[in-house]
What we know:
This protein has helices spanning 11-23, 62-72, 86-91, 94-116, 120-125, 158-177, 199-208, 228-241, 258-272, 303-309, 317-330, 332-340, 342-353; strands at residues 2-6, 27-31, 52-55, 76-79, 127-133, 181-186, 188-190, 213-216, 222-227, 247-250, 255-257, 285-288. By secondary structure, the chain is an alpha/beta fold. The chain has a domain at 2-191 and 228-253 and 297-313 and 343-353: NAD(P)-binding Rossmann-like Domain (Rossmann fold). α1 (11-23) packs across α8, α2 (62-72) packs across α4 (94-116) and α9 crosses α11.
Amino acid sequence: MKILITGGAGFIGSAVIxxxxxxxGDHVINVDKLTYAGNLESLSPVSGSRRYxxxxxxxxxRPALARVFAEHRPDAVMHLAAESHVDRSIDxxxxxxxxxxxxxxxxxxxxxxxxxxxxxxxxxxxxxxxxSTDEVFGDLEASGNPFTxxxxxxxxxxxxxxxxxxxxxxxxxxxTYALPAxxxxxxxxxxPYHFPEKMxxxxxxxxxxxxxxxxxxxxxxxxxxxxxxDHARALHRVITQGRIGETYNIGGWxxxxxxxxxxxxxxxxxxxRPDSPFVPHASLITHVVDRPGHDRRYAIDASKIRRExxxxxxxxxxxxxxxxxxxxxxxxxxxxxxxxxxxxxxxxGILAAT
Length: 354
C-alpha cells in the first residue's frame, strides 16, 4: 500500500512510519507542518528509504493537500496530525480548534474529492483512518468500567473537545458521503522520541539533570499506558484489516497512578545511574497545583481489537518503561537538541537548502 500519514514527524506518527518502513513493504508519504513538536530527527533511521517521501504541508491548506494527493496517489490516509498537549490547550485553545477541527475537515474534504475520482478498484481499496484519543470519553470513576467503543463522549479540556469534534466529523463523512473511514481511540502513549514536554520524558530528563519532578496535585490521577511501538503495530493492523465504519479502542491494559509512574522512573534511574549525584531521584519529586478540569482516571477496554483483529500489546508496562528509560539515557543528545531548539534551527536550514 501507499499510505499518506499526516503528523508523521510527531511522536506517534514517526513510530508508525518507522514500523512501516522497517517491517512492511508499504510506501509512506509523510505530511507534516513541522510545528514545535514535529522533529524529522525521529525519522532518521528510515528517511533514506526509497519508500519514504516527505511533504511539508499544513493540513488546513487545501490546495497544497490536493497537490499531494494528486502527485502521490495514496491508497489510504492515516490522520495523526493534531495539537495534543492539554496544558497548551488550556492556555491557548485557538490552535487546537484550527488544527484538530478545521484541519480534519479540510483533510476529509480533500480525501473525499480524491476518492470520488478513483476508479472502482481504487475506491474499494481506499481507507481513511482517523487516530484519536481516549480523552474524548472524559472522566472515569475509580471503580467504573473501562471505556469501550460505545462509551458516550464527555470531553473535559479544549484539547479533548477538539478531538471529539474531529471524531464526529469523520463519522459524519462516513455516514453522509460513504467515505470509507475508520477511527481508533488510544490510551496514553510512551516510548522513544517523545517530546520532552509530556510527563514521562519530562520526568526522565529533569531527573537526569537534578531538576524538580513536578507532579500535579496528589499524583493520584490514573492513566492506561501503551508503549508507542505496540500502538504503531495496532494502527497498521487497523488500516490493513479493520472493518470500514468501525471504531477500535487501543490500550495497554496498564492502569497506573501518575505518582506511581514517577516513582518507577526514579527507581530505574537509581538502578541504571547509581553514581548520579541525585540518587535517590525520588527526592526531586514536588507536588504542584493541579491542572484545571483534570480528569481523574482513563482506562481502555481493548477487547474488540484483540477479538476481531488479533492485536494485543507485546510490552508490559515494566518492560516498556525500562526500554524507554534506557533509550533516553542513550540519546541525551537528541533530548538536548529538542530542549535548546537546535533541532528546529537545523530543520529550517535543511528545508531552506532544499
